[in-house]
Amino acid sequence: MSSFRKRHVQKPVPGTRTSPQTGQIITSSGNPSFDVIFGGGLPVGSICLIEEDKYVTFSKVLAKYFIAEGVVSGQSVLLGSLDDDPQELMRKLPKPLNDDEVEIEKSTEQENGEFSQNGLRIAWRYNDLPPVNSEQIPSKIGHHFNLMEHMDKNLLDFVDTLLWNGNSYVNSDEVDDDYDCGLGDEDNVFSAIESNTESKDDTDQNTTSSSSGSNISCKEVDLEQERINAAAALLSGNSNETLRIQNATKLQVDAVQAPIILGQKQNNNCEKIFNNSKYQRFLKLVQSFAKEEKFSSSTLVYRSLCRICITSLGSPLWYDEEFPKNILKFLTVLRGIVRNSVSVCFITMPMHLISKYDESLVPKIRNLVDYAIELESFSGSEHETNNAFKEYNGLIHLHKITAVNTLTAYMPETSDLAFKLRRKKFVIEKLHLPPEMQEDIKENMQTFSCSGGSSASATSMDF
Q1: Structure confidence by residue, pLDDT tens digits, 326-371
Q2: E strands within 189-316?
Q3: Where are the compositionally biased (Low complexity) regions (predicted)?
């Protein structure tokens, strides 16, 4: 009997490719020059931390790139933020460019002479060398975007998106800004179910008292549509639960298993690991979203990539009495969710504020992510008026690069990187110092002797 078995080749996830350096499945961050830092793109199952600049200008641009790439690639996007309005952020995504527009833009930049702004002529022997401040070579995946124009709203209609602002979440089919499902507020969900079941018991006390526990008929609980979606999303992860939605306005719970659900309310305090309910609400939303079959790594049919973006995590709106414990627990659980699904996470954090709250938190947070990159802006600093950095808007510091599912991590050619925000795009380049164009005045000054003649300075004398 032959032991030959046909090999089942998994279809590649849309918007991803295999990295030639590490053999990992990678996806674009939305910015081609930013992908070079990771060796072509972000590995699937990784968490990238962007340490925000002081005025949250450039980190928000990278977050828009990350979300826009998921929309254009047809991937699912989960966006959560307490400081920004998620719907407003989605409306201001940059416009994608096609291949012809990208080529036209490159040729226009070369004609304008961006690499020779001073108008200097180079010696013929150095004419064939590449320019020092050339933009890093982009990867083969990903798209180019125009920051001056916004994305067409029709593109957002065909993408599965989930937006969370702390108290509510809005699905791609929902457009109401005040939509509140109460997800994560387990006490309210279960108290609503319990109060409705108790009211039913009062009206049907004669019939229910005579019936046994196994023959109790199904009871209809009238809840609002928000509570229906909340309870379903809350318990959908457990296959043994019997909570199910019969139609768009009514929820039926089997009375046989209703005590199991109500018993979970009593043990709810033991299951809570966060004192701040915001962390638990968002993690439950992420877990229910990432548990869909299309995000499973074992699925052989159709798989999709889940992009999780959290902006300004750890800002003062997330603070409480036990903020250090909550933020570390949150990142630990989030890392487990991302690792066990076909997803990638992009987080921005105001690390300069967190360091003032507790300086020991900074290395602990970096230890719980795969990539930690700091954006140092020149705005409001002494570098803003320095001629050596006049071409750039800030520096990039690589604090951590992890080897995800590989023996060695990809390291970029150089860690001396700077970024500039142009009119239409965000560019990361190799840091270089401009040539010294001004001679020192003291070197050109001549010293006069007592006889009225001039003599060369001591620094210019040859021995």
Answers
A1: 999 999 999 999 999 999 999 999 999 999 999 999 999 999 999 9
A2: 219-222, 244-245, 250-253, 306-311
A3: 205-216
